Amino acid sequence: MLIAAWFVLLAAAAWLVWAGWLMAFRPASALDLLSRTATTCRINAIEQVPRLVAGAAMMVRADVSRFPQFFAIAGGFIVASSMVLLIIPLRWHNGYAVFWAKRIPLPAVRLIGPLSVLGGIGLIWAA
Description:
This protein has one domain. The protein contains 6 helices and no strands. By secondary structure, it is mainly alpha-helical.
């Protein structure tokens, strides 16, 4: 189970690195993707189920990670928030995403990108 959880976290880290690259080099595309968040039940599930699985993987790996308490708490938060995002009305979730997609300036998106890359690298290092 620990090895399977590590591979899940490796995939989550790869996603964070890809998202960071997109934010840094294609910020308009990143904001467009953000505005499409939760537009359909299928898209919402495609977003939230992998996120929920990654949170569960953090909880599974917590005891062997570099930061056991952080992994347990963060993983639990990710699982719980993914469950909430799966059950709330899509218009609420999408409305929140669209609100921010319209307001975050492109230079800010570019600045956030490297943080996502670092987050992905840090996730693997800590796992």
